[in-house]
Every structure is written in structure tokens, then in C-alpha cells.
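I would like you to sit down with the record closing this message with an eye to the fold:
=====
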Amino acid sequence: MSPGHRDPAWLKGFDVAAGRVGAAGEELVAALEHDQRAAELRNEGVSVGRPLRQDDLRALMKLTADRFGVEEVLAPDGLLVKCVQVSRRREHDDDGSTDFLNSFIFHDLERVASAVRAGAYGAALDAYLRIPEPSRTDLRKEPQVVLDHVAPEHVPADVGHKGRACRSR
């Protein structure tokens, strides 16, 4: 995929793209016009969407893959949904843990790439980078390796008493 990890600016614009995907996703699952409770919450500064169905989740998955240009290479076709019970008094709390597109990993990758370019990184990363190429997998050339390890059917469905996992294909 272009520009690829060898380009020093390969993550440039990710924040903007992620913001656009997030905005498009919010629009896709926005509360219905006649939802009075959603309107009341919006007036209180709380943004909520409508109840989602399987086709809504698939549309979000397709939107994300399309906007990041990875639909062809990743061909996402499954979902793993974790359902958890939330108390009424915490139902609208936002601890920031659901913002997966703007997660810490983007900033970490950017910081690591800068450190490597400057030669300012530790022994563990140095040891990893010195592993001979044949024993590492180029995930850009072999994306199926990722899919084989993170496909929903490979994730344990038993999440204990705090929730239940629901698989969809």
C-alpha cells in the first residue's frame, strides 16, 4: 500500500483521515429525527446514536475499509461484538476508551519511526530490527497472515460474567 512504512511521512494525514471516517461513521449511525430522548441528550451535550443492527455494523466496517483504502487488501467480512451491561447512571459516560481510530498506536508508531530515523532507540527495538528479514513476515505482501490470526472465529467468545460476545458473518 502506498506510501508504505519506508516513507518517513507514511502516517502523515492519518489524524485527518481518521477524523473524517469518525464523522462519516457518526452520521451513518446518527439518532433518528423523531427520537425525543436523543434530542434531549444532545441539548445536554451528550451525543448518542440510534440502536444498531447487524447491517449498520457492516456498513461501518465497509465505510472504514473504503475510506482508508484497505477494503481490497483486507477484504473484511466478519465482526466480533462484545456486549456488556452498563448501569443507568453510567450509560452516557465517555471515558475515551472507544475512540479506536485515534488510538494510542498511531502516535506510538510515529514516535518510534522518528526515533529510528534519529538512531535514538533502545536495545529491544534494535534486537528486533536486526532479525534477519526471512524470519519476519511482510504483512503488506502477505495480509492474509494478519487475517488468519485476528479473524473473529479465532477470538474466544467466552468473555466471562461481564459481557457476552456475539459473532456475525
